[in-house]
Amino acid sequence: MTDGSKLAQLKMLREQKFGSAVVKGADTSLREAAPPVPGTPRTGRPLDSKRHLTLKATEPWKKEGMSRRTWFRRQKNAKPARTSPDQDA
Q1: How far apart are CA 65 and CA 62, in angstroms?
Q2: What is the pLDDT of residues 28-70, one digit of tens each?
Q3: Under a CB-based contact definition with an 8 Å cutoff, are residues 67 and 60 in contact?
Q4: Cα Rg for the chain, rounded, in angstroms?
Q5: Which residue of 18, 51, 58, 80 has the lowest C-beta tally within 10 Å?
Q6: 31, 36, 33, 29: which is closest to 20 by C-alpha?
């Protein structure tokens, strides 16, 4: 058995066992991106037309006289954490 046929046989066995020949550490360009879920907010950079509305552009921490890091930390601590939807009652 040649090395090429051994490799092909291993790929076939891996595909049968795991359902795909793509494995961890393989080239990720072979994988397809998951389709977007309707109703989920888009993330990433804002459009140029909306950039003036971003927190970085409005800089609310300067208006309150504190550093950017302190402002974000206080915003995080000010929001109560919800662990389950049953807490509304």
Answers
A1: 5
A2: 555 666 777 777 777 777 788 888 888 888 999 999 999 999 9
A3: no
A4: 25
A5: 80
A6: 31
Task: Give one DSSP letter per residue of 1-58, joined into a string.
Answer: --HHHHHHHHHHHHHHHHS-S--TTS-GGGSPPPPPPTTPPP-SPPPGGGGGGSHHHH
Place of tokens 């092909």: 8
CA gap 43, 57 in Å, rounded = 17
**Amino acid occupying residue 28:** T
The pTM of this model reads 0.40
Query: Which pair of structure tokens corresponds to residue 71?
Result: 């402002």
